[in-house]
Structures are given as structure tokens and as C-alpha cells.
Amino acid sequence: MPAIGVNSLFKSYGGVHAVSDVSFEVGRGDVFALLGPNGAGKTTTIEILEGFNKRDGGDVRVLGVDPGERHNQRWLRTRIGVVLQEMAVESFFSVRQVLERNAGFYPAPRRVDEVIELVGLCDKAQVKVKKLSGGQQRRLDIGLGIIGNPRLLFLDEPTTGLDPAARRMTWDLIRTLSEQGTTVVLSSHYMDEVEALAQHVVVLAKGQIAASGTPWSLGGREFGKVVISFMLPDGVALADLPVTPSRCAGGKVEVDTDCEIEVLARLTNWSMATHHSIAGLSVMRQTLEDVYLKLTHDAEQRAEVVVA
């Protein structure tokens, strides 16, 4: 049984269809990313999964139960964790006090010391929340999300306000939770974060699924054109290269191709035969951000045509 199963989800507000015919599954222990611009239906979908919003149609199962049924919600609250963009935390309590208080809400919480270490706040355990930096408060938010040892964790922009080191530490924490069997539903505007963590991605636009797949394959990304770039070796003219450059500026050669294996073979064979080293060789496909922007833009365009 998947951790989450959504089939033909529908939700409207008055005459506005916030979510229409949305279906997807999330495997247990997976990191799943739900993406979409403002107004795409992402927040509505997540609130329905969390049991905070009622759907108008379709079928939803979270950890095997319907989150919309009132008698399931108490059971579900003890098995899911939620980290919102902004969390309300008592500013005059210390980090340890806040975590100890929240741990008491769950039947089998994680040890407070373990959570403090996981989120990197060992040296701030006795510090009051109001004296924490923005990044430290965000780490505490994540700690509050995992203190109940949830089977399912919802993370809304978990690394906003974190410095690069803290972001990577949070990524490692999410991977660890996933490896230990916790299912993670991630919402983020950082595409590098999604690509680093998620096994599956769904992109919502105008209340419908614009694309679904792995970060690598989303929107046909794995089959698109690539740019192969390298530095022109000293003493070599462009005409001497075994491939036809698309651009060359400042000694950097770029080749646009959809046959990267063939182009790379030509380059490496030529390099070995002529003893010219190829510095800075790289292969770059369109980024996940490029794909995301195109998918959401195309959906917006189609919606405008329908309205017109």
C-alpha cells in the first residue's frame, strides 16, 4: 500500500476549480516533491492530504485512511509531521523546552537529544527561541516536525533562510529520514533541492497535473538537446576540431547536440590520437528549473486560450 494515494481529486471555491482531476501515488519511504506556482492548487492539495481541508470529489488515502473522515484525524495527527513556511513557536521557551513540550503530544516520540543533534542545535539547546537566528529557528521548525517520529512528513520550503552549510545538513537529514522509512512530501522553489532529494515529482498548474515523473525525466528532459562545452586547446583552430562548434567565445567552445554520445566519442578519440587535452569538458542538459518554467508557462498559455 502506498503512503499516499490520490485519485481524481477535485476541490473548488465557488466557481473556481482549485484542483481538478489530480491523481498520483507516493511510495512509502520516498521523497516526493509537489511543485507549482502560486494559485496552482498545491497548497489546497497538501491541506487535503493533511486533513485540514475537505475535498469535493475523488478519493484520497493517507497511510491507508481517508484524511477527510473526522474519526481518522486524531489517529493521523500522531503519525504525520508538518513543517510550514512559518511556524508559531513560544519565543520565551528554550529549544529543549519547546521540543520536550511537543514530544508529549505523541505516543512514541523521538528522544529530544536525538532531535536536537539531528537539526544541528546542540549548542543552542538551552537558548530561548527569541534569541535564535532565522536559520536556527528554521532548524527548530524541522525539529518540531520530526519530534513525533512521524511515518509521513510534510515539508513546506524547509531550507528557506538557511545558509549553504545548513541547507546541506537539512538535505542529509531528509535523506536519513527517508532511509529510515519516513515518507517525505516536499514543497520547494529550489529546483536543485528537488533534484537532489526527490524520487518523484508532480508539477501542478492551474489546478491540474502538468507533468509527473522523476526529476531526471520530467518533461522529456532525458531526451532533450544538450550543450557540450570545453576549452579550445592551445594551438588548435576551430577548423581542426572533430566536431562543429555552435558557439565559441573567450576560448570556450559549445556544441549543441541531441547525439551527445557520438560527439563525446569523437572528441575523446581525437584527444587521445592528437595528444591534445580537453580542459573543462562538461555536458549540460536543460535544467529542472528550465523544464518547470516551461511546463507552468505552457499551462498558463493553454488556460488563457480556453478562457478566451
What does this protein structure show overall?
- The protein has 308 residues and is of the alpha/beta class.
- The chain folds into two domains: 4-218, P-loop containing nucleotide triphosphate hydrolases (Rossmann fold); 225-285.
- The protein is 34% helix and 25% strand.
- The chain has nine helices and 13 strands.
- The strands form three sheets. It has a six-stranded mixed β-sheet, sandwiched between helices. The chain has a four-stranded antiparallel β-sheet with strand order 11-12-10-13, covered by helices on one side.
- A hairpin with a 2-residue loop joins strand 1 and strand 2.
- The protein starts with a strand and ends with a helix.
Features:
308 residues, alpha/beta, Rossmann fold, four-stranded antiparallel sheet, 13 strands, globular
Question: Could you write a compact summary of the structure shown?
Answer:
The protein is α/β, with parallel strands linked by helices and 308 residues long.
